[in-house]
Write a structure and sequence with these properties.
By secondary structure, this protein is α/β, with parallel strands linked by helices. Helix content is 38%, strand content 16%. The protein is built from 12 helices and 10 strands. It has helices at 4-22, 25-30, 83-92, 104-107, 111-120, 134-143, 157-169, 184-188, 211-216, 234-242, 252-255, 260-267, and strands at 62-67, 70-71, 75-76, 97-101, 125-128, 147-151, 173-178, 194-198, 224-228, 247-250. Helix 3 (83-92) packs across helix 5. The longest helix is centred in the N-terminal third of the chain and has 19 residues, at 4-22. It is globular and about 50 Å long.
Length: 271
């Protein structure tokens, strides 16, 4: 059976072919000299670790706040969508890093949103997309991304290692995401510094908020660990923190709130 993820990746392959035809990789690489300097995405997400052998650490859980207009599972999430205004609100209310959706067909995102956010906000920015080809990674760096997402379910183990190495060589932080526990060996083979476990099964779009908690102990404690999807309240955030999770990536539950500043502060326990 063809899954939602299968359909998304098939569209991505078409997008990459078109992008390569419009702007060959060599031409894109030449533009790297004009790319803005990379900002550290990892440090803001790292909690102090009194005991390096233990996952998690002191201090509150960190927030990767996502700029997200729509999704395949939810449709349009925020009608009054202004990427820069949203990012500025996140920054003012205590987010540690940003994630910007750049997938257009399924999330109504845009690389232009990332460029605008990068220019307007000091927080480091991740390109959130389904990256399957080196062209997309170089494109992210040229656009001003500080980090990129690589999803294990979209790539072979060899592709994951190669794209991780390329992104690292370009100075980008890589958030390596997985859902399936069976993909953990391939993820760890990259020697990642930042790993995220998605609580949403991208094949069925169902969410299990305990999924990332169950997998935390299978990832080395020194790896900065992100819980993704299904986090809605400060109590949810505290549960992740208690499980040794360093950061949470939250988009939809924030984007649905009319009072975005209050929603961010409430999630972080600052209200």
């Amino acid at each position: 059976m063809t899954t939602v993820l299968d359909k998304i990746v098939a569209v991505k392959r078409q997008e990459v072919a078109q992008a390569r035809a419009e702007r060959p990789l060599g031409e894109l690489r030449a533009a790297l000299v004009d790319a803005p300097p990379v900002r550290d995405y990892l440090a803001p997400l790292s909690r102090e670790r009194p005991d390096p052998s233990q996952a998690g650490g002191g201090g509150p859980i960190k927030l990767i706040a996502e700029v997200k207009k729509a999704s395949p599972s939810a449709g349009l999430i925020r009608a009054d969508f202004d990427a820069v205004e949203i990012a500025q609100t996140y920054a003012a209310c205590g987010a540690s890093c940003l994630s910007v959706l750049t997938d257009e067909p399924h999330f109504q995102g845009s690389l232009d949103y990332l460029k605008a956010v990068r220019a307007a906000v000091d927080l480091p920015v991740l390109r959130k997309d389904f990256l399957i080809d080196e062209h997309q990674v170089v494109e992210a760096r040229v656009a001003g991304a500080d980090a990129v997402l690589l999803i294990a379910e979209c790539l072979t183990p060899a592709e994951l290692i190669d794209l991780h190495a390329l992104a690292t060589d370009l100075g980008l932080t890589v958030l390596v995401e997985l859902y399936e526990p069976a993909n953990l060996p391939a993820v760890l083979a990259c020697n990642p510094k930042l790993v995220g476990v998605n609580n949403r099964d991208l094949r069925t779009m169902t969410v299990d908020r305990e999924h990332c908690i169950r997998l935390r102990q299978q990832v080395p404690p020194e790896v900065v660990f992100v819980g993704e999807s299904g986090v809605k309240t400060h109590a949810d955030a505290q549960r992740l923190r208690a499980a040794g999770i360093d950061a949470m990536l939250v988009g939809e539950s924030l984007m649905r709130q009319a009072d975005l500043p209050l929603a961010v502060k409430s999630l972080l326990g600052k209200d």
